[in-house]
Amino acid sequence: MHEEIPLSRPDIGPEEEELVLDVLRSGRLSMGPMVEEFESLVARRVGCSEGVAVSSGTDGLHLVLRGLGIGPGDEVITTPFSFIASANVILHVGATPVFVDIDPASLNMDPDRVESAVGPRTKAILAVEALGNPTHMDAYAAIAARHEIPLVEDSCEALGTLHRGRQCGSFGRAGVFGFYPNKQITTGEGGMIVTDDPRLAAACRSLRNQGRAAPPAGGSVAGLGSWLSHERLGYNCRLDELSAAVGVAQMRRLDDLIAARQSVAKSYVTRLMHRRELVLPTIDSRSELSWFVFVVRLAAGWSREERDSIIQSLRRHDVGAADYFPCIHLQPFYRDLFGYREGAFPIAESVCQRTLALPFFGQMTDREIGFVVQTLELMLDRQNLSRD
Ligand SMILES: *Cc1c(COP(=O)(O)O)cnc(C)c1O
């Protein structure tokens, strides 16, 4: 077997191909029925009244913060252990990210630290299901409610995940999904805002569409006199019909896509749980994951250098591997902007050094999972020898 096993791979079938062809042949490539269908499929799944499709998860988060009126002088509490976009959007609106350290089990923000970080300038909590884990989302929602500030849920890694029977994306004032090809569903590039707040939804629709006013219900979008009337400084964050068509087909298959991911995750857990060098994902019994990635952590005492050397060796054996996620506050421009140094958030930093993402996608075969596990075990055995 010497096909490379990638870190992730989208699952695209004939349904996606057919719908994309339908759109191409329809001649309507933007602002049409596919986007609307995609919005209602995602909103309904999450249990929210509104869905606003956008061109990426990052754009979705950006528009939500703008729609909430967050800007210069405001603070937003967030996690240092995430993909960088979740903190960047706070900078995009001119506000200041206030990082809090994480809980070492779920890898999400420690709720007690969130509570104590709330101050007079706090205008929102931006929570992330890190690596798809939804633990504490209910706690953040309670803290946000107590302080009368909005919770914005970055659910880009958690479409279809349940926490205490509730769909991720529905815990806060708004939730945002991303559809980059490594996510649970993809549209190539794309994202979706979900909310029960009609005013916020209307603001986001306007912001994504150059600041235009909403067209009257049932009206034809392109023929309106309001097309060149702009109420606010907007952006072009629209999702096109071709991408939305892929999303519609993916949403129709969502339960099957999730079941396949759950089965691959289960197989990894079964094969790796005896390795005392590894900490496997810690999932609360009240959560049901749709699984974004499969990330293991080397046990305490293992160094960043050992982790990096395992990643390099896996890649040499054609096994995709990555260091999800380096701490955001230690990224070069965050250090420059805010003067962060090692030691600022010790739990997140200690976790970041030892995490290791393995190839993970729903169509992984048993053989592929077996090869990844066998190769990883070989690397661990080698490292053990060189440590003794
Ligand atoms: C993927 C991701 C995003 C960004 O989504 P894009 O669609 O790539 O812009 C934001 N936050 C988190 C936590 C993500 O994993």
Radius of gyration: 21 Å
Q: What spatial order of strands do you see in the largest sheet?
A: 1-9-8-5-4-2-3
Largest sheet at a glance? 7 strands, mixed
Which geometry do the CA atoms define? globular
The beta-strand count equals 13
The overall average pLDDT, rounded, is 96
Portion of residues in beta strands equals 5-15%
Cofactors and ligands = pyridoxal-5'-phosphate
What is the ordering of alpha helices and beta strands?
HHEHEHEHEHEEEEEHHHEEEHHHEH
* Count of discrete alpha- or pi-helical segments spanning 4 or more residues: 13
Low-pLDDT segments, ≥5 res: none
End-to-end Cα distance, whole Å, is: 32 Å
Considering DSSP H and I runs of 4 or more, what fraction of the residues is helical? 25-40%
Q: Can you tag this structure with a few keywords?
A:
13% strand; 388 residues; globular; single chain
Structure notes:
The protein has helices at 14-26, 33-46, 57-67, 85-92, 111-117, 137-146, 198-208, 241-252, 254-272, 304-316, 332-338, 346-352, 366-387; strands at residues 50-54, 75-78, 96-99, 122-128, 151-154, 162-163, 166-167, 174-178, 191-195, 278-279, 287-288, 294-298, 355-358. It is built from 13 helices and 13 strands. The longest helix is centred in the last third of the chain and has 22 residues, at 366-387. The mean pLDDT is 96. A hairpin with a 2-residue loop joins strand 6 and strand 7. The strands form three sheets. Strands 1-9-8-5-4-2-3 form a seven-stranded mixed beta sheet, sandwiched between helices. A three-stranded antiparallel beta sheet has the order 7-6-11, with no helix packed on it. A three-stranded antiparallel beta sheet has the order 10-12-13, covered by helices on one side. 40% of the residues lie in helices and 13% in strands. It is globular, with a radius of gyration of 21 Å. With 388 residues, it is α/β, with parallel strands linked by helices. The protein binds pyridoxal-5'-phosphate (PLP). Pyridoxal-5'-phosphate is lined by residues 56-58, 82-83, 85-86, 128, 154, 156-157, 178, 180, 191.
